[in-house]
């Protein structure tokens, strides 16, 4: 019996060791093409690390989030990101922040963060927010929505399409925390209809089940980036 327990313990430890050695760190960019040439190395899944002895308080500090972003644009919103590019000390800490400003009836269009879950708190005004699930077994994509007022909090799970809309005739402000030093943003309409070079319109016409003329019109529009 002791032998059975020993073998079981050994198997569990082997499995744990296998899992540990197979673990990969979360990616911090869209892709990282491998190279064996040190001269061609650009970064190591994010940023290089400075000698800790040379760190200073300014490496962990930024300011200016008391100032509203410019919402005078086609979507009526502005996202001020505070990620590792703005605070160098965020490197490897797996967190970032953003201020979101909304003009009356402004919107942060449907988008995803491929590398982060987002938690949002409304500071001023009202926001209608929501996210859509991945494809379900019945072929549906479930929509979760909520009207948020000052002090309300909402979570958008990692990678899922989500949005925020200001339904009121007054500005709105929110702050968001994201679980990555570089969460990334894919704005759906911009990516699908404004890619460079453009996606073949026949592909999009088939995908959206519309006439190609509709796709041609959409691809000719100027797709604004509010980040």
Brief characterization of the structure:
It is found in: Secreted, Extracellular space, Apoplast. With 227 residues, this protein is an alpha+beta fold.
Strand runs, count: 10
What CATH calls the topology of the largest domain is Jelly Rolls
**Count of DSSP H/I helices:** 4
Biggest sheet layout? 5 strands, antiparallel
At CATH level 2, the architecture of the largest domain is Sandwich
Count up the domains.
Answer: 2
Structural class by helix and strand composition: alpha+beta
CATH superfamily of the largest domain, by name, is Jelly Rolls
For the record, the CATH class of the largest domain is Mainly Beta
Q: What is the averaged pLDDT score?
A: 88
| Strand composition percent | 15-25%
The largest beta-sheet arranges its strands as 1-2-9-4-7
What is the radius of gyration computed over CA atoms, rounded to a whole number of angstroms? 22 Å
């Amino acid at each position: 019996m002791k032998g059975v327990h020993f073998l079981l313990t050994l198997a569990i430890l082997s499995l744990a060791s296998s899992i540990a050695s197979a673990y990969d760190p979360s990616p911090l960019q869209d892709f990282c093409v491998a190279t064996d040439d040190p001269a061609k190395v650009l970064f190591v899944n994010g940023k290089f690390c400075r000698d800790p002895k040379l760190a200073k308080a300014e490496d962990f500090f930024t300011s200016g989030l008391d100032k509203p972003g410019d919402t005078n644009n086609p979507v009526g919103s502005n996202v001020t990101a505070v990620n590792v590019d703005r605070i160098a000390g965020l490197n490897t800490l797996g967190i970032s922040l953003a201020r979101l400003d909304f003009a009356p009836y402004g919107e942060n269009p449907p988008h995803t963060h491929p590398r982060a879950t987002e938690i949002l708190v409304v500071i001023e005004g009202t926001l209608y927010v929501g996210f859509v699930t991945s494809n379900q077994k019945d072929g549906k994509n479930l929509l979760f929505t909520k009207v948020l007022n000052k002090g309300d909090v909402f979570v958008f799970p990692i990678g899922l399409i989500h949005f925020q809309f200001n339904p009121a005739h007054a500005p709105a402000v929110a702050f968001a925390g994201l679980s990555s030093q570089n969460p990334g943003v894919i704005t759906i309409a911009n990516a699908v209809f404004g890619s460079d070079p453009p996606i073949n319109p026949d592909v999009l016409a088939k995908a959206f089940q519309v006439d190609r003329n509709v796709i041609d019109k959409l691809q000719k529009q100027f797709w604004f980036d509010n980040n």
